[in-house]
Amino acid sequence: MTNVIVDLSKYLLILLIAMYTYWNFRYFGVSEEKKKILCRRQNQMMCLLHILAYGVMLLKTGDFKLAAFYMVQAVFFQCYRFAYRRLYKNRSEILVNNMCLLLCVGFIILARLSFSKALHQFFLVVLSGTATLAIPFIIGRAWQLSRIPWLYGMLGAGLLAAVLMAGDNSYGAQLSLTVKGISLQPTEFVKIIFVFFVSAMFYRSTDTRQIGITTVGAALHVLILAASKDLGSALIFFVTYIFMLFIASSDWRYLGAGGLLGCLASGAGWVLFSHVRVRVAVWADPWADLDNKGYQITQSLFSIGTGGWFGMGLYQGMPGKIPVVEKDFILAAISEEMGALFAFCILLICLGCFIQFMMIACRMEAMFYKLIAVGLGTMYIVQVFLTAGGACKFIPSTGVTLPFVSYGGSSVLSTFILFSVIQGMYILKRSEEEEEAYEAYI
Question: What is the pTM of this model?
Fold first, then answer.
């Protein structure tokens, strides 16, 4: 009987997230009143998905710690949404919903893989969510943020240099710093600082001299990352800078030059770094070294293939066989037990967040805010693409995580900051529009 319930539950889970995803995109084409209705429906779908998944896990394991874990999550999500409603009248409700949905899915799959890691992740999420609640308020009132570009540049490059000189080595790259037993990945926060640096520089001017100076500063960030062998992050920084430069200058030649330079940099990475050659060789033919270097990607492909469109059902697969599955291969675990359709919906929700970021960028009149929205949105969607592409062998693995879903405290906190900055700009613009409408009325 238990297996029948588990088997039926996977179809219900897909139906629930598919409805949530549909309303996520329907949101962009309806009136303000209907948007509120759609957001309420999304909340209902998320609550049903959440309780169904934990009900199935409780049924399979009989471990009542999962029931307690579900309840504290439910309380947190309700409190977080309530705090946003009380603090910010003009918030983007759909962004809050999407944050909660992605976190919810992350907790479900992490609890399935490792309860201790899920509990640790929840603790970090509560701290991060609480700590970043004030950021939208700050964004709307701190115009001087655009006046300190070199502080952003020096701080970002300094943190990356610290990782290069004293960072811990992980899978061939220097990624983290350990301070009094606490491991941090400064790169996750430098991503945001870097966007502020570029935005503030181009807000001042976009003449040839300013572009040259900014390019040197951006290149310094990328070169330090390359020296640390963190090529996944280096790629994210590079692509983000090229798109921000294009938006600031409206010159298509920069996109072409960026594409050419990216090809040359890829060739240089192949020549200079042995682990890059290994990753590309594994990507090209992982079956040639199935039990060693190709083990991770082949296990990921087995998981995705075994799960098929509808998944095996929670606790019916073996996602734990994938090394580091809770981080950069979390989508493979989701695909195996919850189905490729479920995983695809997760990616569509991430795409919906990106579209919302770009819509906010289009509405901002100040170039500083416009570039921040474009930069953060580009960083976000490139990271999602790299994670998804690496898990399904579309591109070589880069070792980056899926925001809000994968395990990792630095990633969670930086993503909360990213969404809070975007939320702050949305609230600022909505408030300005309300004031203009009021002035026109009187």
Answer: 0.92
